[in-house]
Amino acid sequence: MVSIANLSPTTYLPLEAERGHLFLIPWILQWRSRHLWIRLSELSRATLILENRKQALISCLQFSTVKVIRVDMRLSEADLLLWAKACAATQKQLFLRIPPSIRMPHQHQRFWWGVKRLCDWIAALVLLIGLGPLMLITMAMMWVWMPGPFFFKQWRVGQRGKLFEIVKFRTMIPNADQLHHQVMGQQQGLHKRKDDPRITPLGRWLRKFSLDELPQLWNVLKGDMSLVGPRPWALYDAVRLPPEGYSRLNALPGITGPWQVQGRSSVLDLGAVTRLDLDYLHHWSILKDLKILFLTVPKVLSGIAAH
Predict the structure, then answer these.
(1) What is the pTM of this model?
(2) pLDDT tens-digit profile of 96-114?
(3) Are 228 and 289 in contact (CB under 8 A)?
(4) Residue 51: CB partners within 8 Å, gap ≥ 6?
């Protein structure tokens, strides 16, 4: 097996032969300023990913001194998931390789952005404590009517393209992710369906009033998200973005934002959602965040356009 700790500046990464078969993953690995960059080889756009190959990749990363890994946006969703799981197991930071943007709020309004982040942390802590009883009641309902794990974790794209695991209350049947592409098929736009058969009756009710979103306060407390910000893209949506939408992935995502208050689940076009997010980012202010928070409350209580 090739050790990542001893790679040349540009190296193809083959995984060891097993039972007479050589599994070759067509990635190119490059060192840049102590960061490991993962590019898709032009030799082949097809990638063979097997679950048992994850352990081989973990073994390589465990013996490497590299702390930050950046992956090409052209990698498939399966590739990104493989790297995300391997990096999580070895405590490495994983970023998507995206073009930088000079129009993010934290760059041109640093003081007020700092105020926003402080308010995020305080509010998330207070809300987690204050809403604790409601979350316990929700978990009790799930224990009675929806046996299985309480929480659902999924890889999302965060600030500067950093991948993180979002936490929600589970609203679908166990192992729903394995049926995702079968259910969505060739659906264009955001992969959300009002009639998604994987959603349980209790899960549909939790989604209607956004109770499934409450555990995301933990993501805010950790610094992965904000109370207000653009939608955190799931990997299966992010890989379908056009190149002109990549810079939007530099933003810190939020629990609520322009998408939620200007259409919620009724707006599914990737381009329309991206335009909403960019308009919010380019004209960001503390007052705009407060306005979105106030508009979110009646939207959530009404349950309109949520699924």
Answers:
(1) 0.82
(2) 988 887 788 888 899 999 9
(3) yes
(4) none
